[in-house]
Amino acid sequence: MSETQSSTSQKAMDEDNKAVSQTMPNTQDKTNTQDYEDELTRVALALVEDVINYAVKFLEDEQNPIKNIKWMTHGEFTVEKGRKQIDEYLSDAPIGVFFVGEEQELVHRPGMVCFREQWQKNLTDAKYDCMKAFSSIFDRV
Predict the structure, then answer these.
(1) Which among 25, 82, 113, 130 could bridge 108 via Cys, Cβ 3.0 to 4.6 Å?
(2) Is-contact 92 67, C-beta < 8 A?
(3) How far apart (Å, rounded) are the C-alpha atoms in residues 12 and 16?
């Protein structure tokens, strides 16, 4: 290392030591050192507590992403306001509405497949006929 680099490095280290010595209490005075360590411990514990509280809140928000909205009172209620608040609430909640026939692969979703009530009636009738045909099995239950 050249002498210029060495002297520059030495100056930087001297400045760092000077800054540290200004922030650290005199190590020869045990009372000041103990007070400093106690204060440092208190600040560190407060910081750790804040970080833990933030982490817990973050995890709760991740597990329950639906935010709570301020619902109107009965005196403020109108149909339009009610619909608006319900839409706002549901926009945050990934709610899926669908119908799947018993062990069928076709999933019926509103707006995607036109659900026919006759399908449900056919399933119910077929189930009833099957139960009636095997009444000895289903009577035990």
Answers:
(1) 113
(2) yes
(3) 6
Cα 135 to Cα 102, 125, 126, 138: the distances in Å are: 20, 15, 14, 5
> Is the pTM higher than 0.70?
no
Distance CA 68, CA 85 (A): 11
Q: Which helix (H) or strand (E) holds 9?
A: helix 3-23
Place of tokens 């009738």: 125
**How confident is the model over 51-107, as pLDDT tens digits?**
998 888 888 777 766 667 788 898 999 999 998 988 887 776 677 777 676 666 777
105 to 79, 98, 117: CA distances (angstroms): 39, 12, 18
Report, in angstroms and rounded to the nearest whole number, the Rg of the chain calculated over CA atoms.
36
Residues 6 or more apart from 9 whose CB is under 8 A from it?
Answer: 1
